[in-house]
């Protein structure tokens, strides 16, 4: 039996949505969650979409989305970027060392 997406986790306030996205990215960058877990949290908390609906919007199959969210498979950068695009995100090369990332961002 499939679980329904709950509207209680959906964030509608614009400022709160930016904070939710920042919090999820912070968890991802600090390696507390995986890329797939981040995608799932973004989908549910920012859009409130089912996998089926999100797959339609992003033009990827529901199975591909499921694989991405469960960190399975070896998908191209294009597919991963397609999934993250609704959140204003894309894959990039970033330092593994968080201190180096902070230093780079502060010098910008």
Automatic annotation (TrEMBL):
Q: Which CDD domains match?
A: HTH_XRE (cd00093)
Q: Which SUPFAM superfamilies match?
A: lambda repressor-like DNA-binding domains (SSF47413)
State the protein's name. Transcriptional regulator
Please give the superkingdom of this protein's source.
Bacteria
Record-linked Pfam families: HTH_3 (PF01381)
Taxonomic classification: Bacteria, Pseudomonadati, Pseudomonadota, Gammaproteobacteria, Pasteurellales
Q: Which residues form the HTH cro/C1-type domain?
A: 39-98
> What's a Gene Ontology MF term here?
DNA binding
């Amino acid at each position: 039996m499939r679980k329904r997406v709950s509207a209680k986790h959906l964030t509608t306030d614009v400022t709160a949505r930016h904070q939710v996205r920042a919090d999820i990215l912070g968890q991802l960058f600090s390696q507390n969650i995986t890329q797939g877990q981040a995608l799932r949290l973004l989908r549910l908390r920012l859009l409130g979409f089912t996998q089926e609906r999100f797959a339609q919007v992003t033009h990827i199959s529901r199975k591909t989305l499921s694989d991405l969210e469960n960190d399975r498979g070896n998908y191209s950068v294009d597919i991963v970027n397609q999934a993250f695009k609704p959140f204003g995100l894309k894959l990039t090369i970033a330092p593994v060392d968080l201190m180096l990332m902070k230093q780079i961002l502060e010098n910008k």
